Amino acid sequence: MSVADVNATSTHRNCAFADNGLVQQLVGPQNDNLNLLEQRLGVALNLRGNAITIDGPADAVARAETVLRDLYTRAGRGAAVEPGDVDAAVRMSTANAAAGAPVIRTRKRHIAARTPNQATYLSVLQNHDLVFALGPAGTGKTYLAVAQAVAMKMSGDVDRIILSRPAVEAGERLGFLPGDMREKVDPYLRPLYDALYDMMPGDQVVRQLESGEIEVAPLAFMRGRTLANAFVILDEAQNTTPVQMKMFLTRLGENARMVVTGDLSQIDLPKGTVSGLDDALNVLRNVRGVGRIDFGPQDVVRHDLVTRIVSAYDARDRTGAAEPRT
Description:
alpha/beta
């Protein structure tokens, strides 16, 4: 194992655990998780039996112990401890947000926040009938909303899950695509299917899609309906028009929840068309009962490189530099 540089003012701590089997899950194959934690926090970690010694600056040592104990608890619940989980625990320790953060329980997995903003999002999802979640790809805004929907259906709080996206790329040309309507629109809804299969056994997803307990449909199919006793998610909402957004929001019925997700930096509408998401955020700014969460590059929980890519594009956008012609 590599050893982080430490100096004479460093702190030493011995972090002991009761279950050696869980410790092996914690440290990962070839101590990969410990090596990653060393890089993230600038500490030196050494495994000795069922204990891990930590050396480094006092604040970093304290954070490292918090992360190790959180990951040990995670392993004790039967969850995997992978590099992404190490990064998540480090992020949460930064804001001391791990304690008391909500956990969503679905049939296939328990889903916990990986960033302080995600922890706030989970609380907002539990306490608001309408939630807007904004931010770049990889921040979990849609994934966590689907998880909350599945959990609420499992508990009987809602009877149906309705997932929708605007099929902007198809425009008015859906009728010219091959196949029936579901085959025409499925490519635009695939990310929602992927999230469902991550939360539920495949046979249950298929059965509930066939029974109508779960509905995945393009935004146009929402017109004229009242959506009661349902958890409704509108994904990629930056690609709605103001008329479409108003139509969608006014479908909210009794005992229903709505989550609207989108990224205002990724609008695919024709040039000069106002985004319905942007419009709704302005119109509903002071409306009681509406929740909002804004994610940023620091909340991206995909590959580290994705975070750096998002940050680079944000920096370019802030400078106002022109996009290259294609």
